[in-house]
Amino acid sequence: MPEGDTVWNTARVLQRALAGARLTGSDFRVPQLATTDLTGWTVRESASRGKHLLLRLTGTDAEPWTLHSHLRMDGAWRAYAPGERWSGRPAHLIRVVLRSPAAVAVGYHLHELALVPTAGEESLVGHLGPDLLGRDWDAGEAVRRLAAEPDRTIGEALLDQRNLAGVGNLYKCEVLFLRGVSPWTPVGAVPDLPGTVALAQRLLAANRGRWTQSTTGVLQRGGTSYVYGRRAQPCRRCGTAIRKEELGERVTYWCPACQPGVELPRNAQDRPR
Q1: pTM of the model
Q2: Which long-range contacts (CB under 8 A, 24 or more apart) does 6-9 make?
Q3: What is the pLDDT of residue 62?
Q4: Active-site residue list
């Protein structure tokens, strides 16, 4: 699941593969950048901000530029050795290829791909809240942003990247289960909102540097989550069947026994998706 920790890991892969390298070629397969040629440009660093990936480069002029991409639900970057077979995804999903003497970086199914002056990065990521995995993580500011809309459901508020950057559906479900909070609870009624924010940060940080996302401490398949992806399976705490339902434009998983207090809307149905 491309959430903040996955993007952080991806940024590290590109950092190791390309940082300091002078590009020997590029191939953009999106209309807005189809004629762009980054040959001769130098990759300065690869960084992440929430779910956004920022590849910072120095071009033929003095002004630094940033190649911005968003993974959303299905995007990915892969790094290969020169001559190695590209096995990450089908070829028709490739959106960009960056070549250097030591590595080839291939971007699959990337979204919002754009090349902007580095000084203008804020136009793309300036709306984001504090980055859970950023050096400038500010838990107090994240709490303040969440609390600014007390009538909004906590499930929706946690997914809003303007509040805190990096939480996706997996971490939303797992954090609320561990806190014993119904996803439909209004933000203003959540007990210990700072504790909820702190837990979200700890869970993402715990998965930084590995590709298997686990909130349980178990890395084996089938044991990595408490509620996410476990519809109709028994709760690991109480044995109640885990439920799955829409919340806004996303689905949510929760245990009705461990996360009581707020009933579902009357038109809600526990239907498979």
Answers
A1: 0.89
A2: 6/71, 6/211, 6/213, 7/48, 7/50, 7/51, 7/52, 7/53, 7/71, 7/166, 8/48, 8/133, 8/208, 9/208, 9/209, 9/210, 9/211
A3: 72
A4: 2-3, 51, 250
